């Protein structure tokens, strides 16, 4: 009986020591402090959301505002603001290279930014609609000119004036018109008679005959007694 009672007493939990009591007290204080911080953060989130809801509502009601830029804020705040904007039916984007400088811009749906405008903000530049419009027009003009050049095909060299108009006062309108029909555009040499282009051998023969006649005439002139006194 005595042995049974002793085993029961030994198995019972011993009273806590002074060290155990101090550890439990610190643990309770830490848990209370943590709960207090969580409640404080929760209140801050609620207050921040209410403030953002108020600013977004004022932005919607202001008909003169198309977009609004907020100050740099942390990731949690940006997340809350994006959620508020989405609920309000607006568009929002975050910009900034590093976490400390990132900020949010919101836009009304009817004034949603273009890709060019978003790219400007991502580069850290201010958006200038007038310069962007000028750039767009220049781009369209260059594209239109390129398309027209492609439709025209290779460039052709044309004479400065119309053949039949230039020589009609000398050979008559009908003759000039007929002569104009015998011409063919040539990119390197302007206009030459078609017959000349087709029969180059006859031209060479004619030129040789002319040279031969010139040589014959020179030899006759150089012969003593050939000229009259």
From TrEMBL:
Residues 1-48, 122-162 are annotated as: Disordered. Residues 46-109 form the R3H domain. GO terms for molecular function: nucleic acid binding. Pfam families: R3H (PF01424). PROSITE patterns: R3H (PS51061). InterPro entries: R3H_dom (IPR001374), R3H_dom_sf (IPR036867), R3H_sperm-antigen (IPR034068), SPAG7 (IPR017330). It comes from the Eukaryota. Gene3D superfamilies: R3H-like domain. Residues 21-48, 122-151 have a biased composition (Basic and acidic residues). PANTHER family: SPERM ASSOCIATED ANTIGEN 7, SPERM-ASSOCIATED ANTIGEN 7. This is Sperm-associated antigen 7 homolog. The lineage of its organism: Eukaryota, Metazoa, Chordata, Craniata, Vertebrata.
């Amino acid at each position: 009986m005595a042995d049974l009672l002793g085993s029961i007493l030994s198995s019972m939990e011993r009273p806590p020591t002074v060290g155990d009591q101090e550890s439990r007290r610190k643990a309770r204080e830490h848990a209370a402090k943590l709960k207090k911080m969580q409640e404080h953060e929760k209140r801050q989130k609620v207050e921040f959301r209410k403030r953002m809801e108020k600013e977004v509502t004022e932005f919607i009601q202001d008909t003169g505002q198309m977009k609004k830029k907020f100050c740099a804020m942390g990731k949690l705040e940006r997340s809350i603001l994006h959620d508020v904007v989405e609920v309000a039916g607006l568009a929002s984007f975050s910009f900034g290279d590093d976490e400390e400088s990132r900020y949010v811009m919101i836009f009304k749906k009817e004034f949603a930014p273009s890709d060019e405008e978003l790219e400007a903000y991502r580069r850290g530049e201010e958006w200038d609609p007038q310069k962007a419009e000028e750039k767009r027009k220049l781009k369209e003009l260059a594209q239109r000119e390129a398309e027209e050049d492609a439709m025209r095909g290779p460039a052709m060299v044309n004479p400065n004036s119309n053949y039949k108009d230039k020589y009609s006062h000398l050979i008559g309108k009908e003759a000039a018109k007929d002569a104009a029909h015998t011409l063919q555009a040539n990119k390197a040499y302007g206009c030459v008679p078609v017959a000349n282009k087709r029969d180059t051998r006859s031209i060479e023969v004619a030129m040789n005959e002319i040279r031969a006649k010139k040589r014959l005439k020179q030899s006759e002139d150089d012969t003593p007694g050939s000229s009259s006194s």
